[in-house]
# Entry
Amino acid sequence: HDFRGTAHFRIVNMRKKKSLYQQGLQPHCYSVRRNRGWQPFACEDISYSANCNLQQRGISRSGSEGGIRPDQHTLAFSYTVTHLDDEIYFAAYPPYTYSMMSGFLAQLDEHAPARAHFQRSELCRSIGQLPVPLLVIAQDIAPAASGSAADTAGGTD
# Structure
């Protein structure tokens, strides 16, 4: 809890040979103490490379790291902790929450030009009993008089 400094992370045995991290994607960070939301550029020294390169950099494959597979890849990055007693979360992309989705769908419902291209209904309920929305998107979709999903999607056999 009293650590302040740079922490280095290595996520090993990733399967993909190519990654967006090689093209500039950076891990997103959320610091509870900073409370600035998810930050896309808070990490440094981001690399994505084949595990076989780890031996060349002097990282041992013995001991606790014996499970590193040379045919897999490693994502490595550093993060500087600046606040004592902080909680820090990392994600490949910022989370898209149910509240964010609900807010976006409410904006669509209020936007008349958008309403001409989608129809919204409830697909099912989540484990937490929240409605899971179903959007049918089409060119100039009109609310169906009968209200059936087959009529709305324009599909009859």
Remarks:
- Residues 145-157 have pLDDT under 50 and may be disordered.
- The beta strands are 5-14, 28-31, 43-50, 73-81, 88-91, 118-125, 131-137.
- The helical segments are 52-56, 98-110, 112-115, 149-153.
- The first strand starts at residue 5 and ends at 14.
